[in-house]
Amino acid sequence: MEDCCSFSTGLNATMFRGVAYGAKDTFTLLLTRSQYYNPGLNFSSIWAEVANRSFPVYSTYTTDTKSREENKKTIDSLYRLSVDIKKIRRVKEWVLLQDVAYVKEISGILQEMGADETAVANILERYPEAILHTPAEINSQRALWQLVCQNEKQLIKLIEQFPESFFTTEYHENQKANILFFQELGLKNNIITRFLTSAPNVFCNPVEKNKNVIEALQRNYLSLGGSDANMKIWILKLLSQNPFILLNTSTVIQENLEFLQKNGFTDHEVLQLLSKLKGFIFQLTPTTMQKSMLFSKNVFKCSDQELKQLVLKCPALLYYSVLVLEERLEGLLKEGISVAQIRETPMVLELTTQIVQYRIKKLSALGYDIKSGTLESLNGTKKDFEVNYGKIQSKKERPIFNPVAPIHTED
User: Fold this and answer.
1) DSSP letters spanning 21-78
2) What global pTM score does this model have?
3) Tens-place pLDDT, residues 307-342
4) Cystine design at 127: which of 10, 163, 290, 329 (Cβ 3.0–4.6 Å)?
């Protein structure tokens, strides 16, 4: 069976500058925009970003709109459901031209699951292709998702949020096999549900391909000194943090690990990097990692051993492209921060220029001079920064005397 997710070659090209496969199958953008998963590397927004991106849909429906007329029956049915037909015409008019559509049937299934009229209209506006699937296909998909959803209330909520993920039925058998495989592997249903909605391409893979990648990860984990006792926990954690690793091949995994070893990282240090990078290292290439490391070495004027320690301290130096590192370094220097300060606290390069400017401005308002102090106050997630900011603010506002102390006066 042809793999609907066979576009991993583009995966390694421009991470952190936006990884895109085209208008229809972008799977993530600028992993640095948020801090949901990793307080250091800001990988969080991957889930939110991915959830709003499209993925490949292979169907037999024609999108040729020449000399075609809209299906009046379809239009009337959508109108009765209060669907914004003008919106569909603007973005996916071809759906309205199909000879066969199942508007009444699909809306009925959604209502059976608990969707009200507003929810049904919203779903069909966001993903009008839903009406081109047969009721049998949708009922099969419904039964499949119920394997991991707590109840139909949760299911209909997910469909409303991620209609494209649910209505991609072309690889139903692959989806089912992968769901069962992940359950056997030990992934919790809520994690699998998150995969289904935000990483649907993973389920397009034949289950054998996903098994091969997992087996490659297990072999490498053990060869790097990991223990059998901890292997399952490590694999499950890695997958839950970054399911997109399954879009790679075992060859890519092997090449990247060998690159790190050839550059002087011990097995233990490689495992360290894998944990800190949450598997995103497998979406790089030896070439991009080499360029980023060379850039950092030249900027910080350090030896190979010193560079290695900097990378272990801040894996972003390995992961970010040269373009991103250049942009962020330039932004810091414009704020009057020295290269020496950055070398001392390289984690500051994990932050976007905009975030750095905002934090410096807030600290400056308190009289904190970032140019002459440490950069530690800039680091961390939004929550980390707010805690540090609060401490500095509290210290500044603390009275110089104890207001409850007794006043000594002369008799």
Assistant:
1) --TT---B--TTSB-SS-TTT-BTHHHHHHHTS------S-----TT----HHHHHHH
2) 0.70
3) 999 999 999 899 899 999 999 999 999 988 999 999
4) 163
